[in-house]
């Protein structure tokens, strides 16, 4: 499959029950973790899509390192981290999104 899949971190891939600091990421959400592991095993590019990545300076470096460490521990591989989508993104998995039909504004399922 060409392109990449964006997966939200807090509340989608990792349990989230409120902000506890840049160095805290919750435990994995089992169903989502297994889905991501399968995509990775199948050779699909997966990126962690998170607002944590929009931080700059030392805080941004720390945020990315904490996420990379979490990915290594739970996925077995450090995944790219971003807060930006581009034309290569083919899907976005997020606990806050609403699926809208392209070019119509109609809400889907």
What does this structure look like?
The chain is of the alpha/beta class and 109 residues long. The chain has 2 helices and 4 strands; from the N terminus they run βαβαββ. The longest helix has 18 residues, at 57-74. It is globular, with a radius of gyration of 14 Å. The two termini are 24 Å apart. The mean pLDDT is 94.
Distance between the termini: 24 Å
Describe the largest sheet.
4 strands, parallel
Largest sheet, order of strands side by side? Answer: 3-2-1-4
Summing up helix and strand content along with how strands pair, one would put the structural category as alpha/beta
Q: How large, in whole angstroms, is the Cα Rg?
A: 14 Å
Q: Give the H and E element order.
A: EHEHEE
Secondary structure tally: strands: 4
Look at the structure and give the mean pLDDT: 94
Overall geometry? globular
Number of helical regions? 2
Uncertain regions spanning at least 5 consecutive residues: none
* Share of helical residues: 25-40%
Strand-residue proportion = 15-25%
């Amino acid at each position: 499959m060409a392109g990449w899949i964006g997966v939200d971190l807090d509340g989608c891939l990792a349990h989230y029950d409120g902000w506890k600091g840049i160095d805290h990421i919750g435990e994995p959400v089992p169903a989502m973790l297994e889905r991501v592991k399968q995509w990775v095993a199948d050779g699909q590019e997966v990126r962690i899509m998170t607002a944590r990545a929009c931080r700059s300076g030392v805080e941004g470096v720390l945020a990315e390192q904490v996420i990379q460490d979490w990915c290594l521990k739970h996925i077995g591989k450090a995944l790219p981290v971003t807060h930006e989508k581009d034309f290569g993104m083919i899907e976005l998995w997020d606990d806050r999104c609403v699926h809208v039909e392209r070019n119509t504004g109609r809400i889907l399922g």
